[in-house]
Write a structure and sequence with these properties.
58 residues, mainly alpha
């Protein structure tokens, strides 16, 4: 009978699995928010034609 590390059944409690998964999701959200905050968007001019009705004086 071989008693190796791979042959043993290792059980992790469900609470630890849940905390690990929640931590991964929270880390991904935090990393995404940090990346979006660190790299500001490039500014560009927006040119939009106004309709003639808005230019008429009443």
């Amino acid at each position: 009978m071989l008693n190796t590390y791979a042959a043993r059944k290792i059980s992790v409690p469900d609470t630890v699995k849940f905390i690990f998964v929640v931590g991964l999701i929270a880390g991904a959200i935090y990393g995404t928010a940090l990346a979006l905050a660190s790299f500001p968007p490039e500014q560009s001019e927006i040119i939009k034609a106004l309709p003639h009705e808005k230019l008429r004086q009443k």
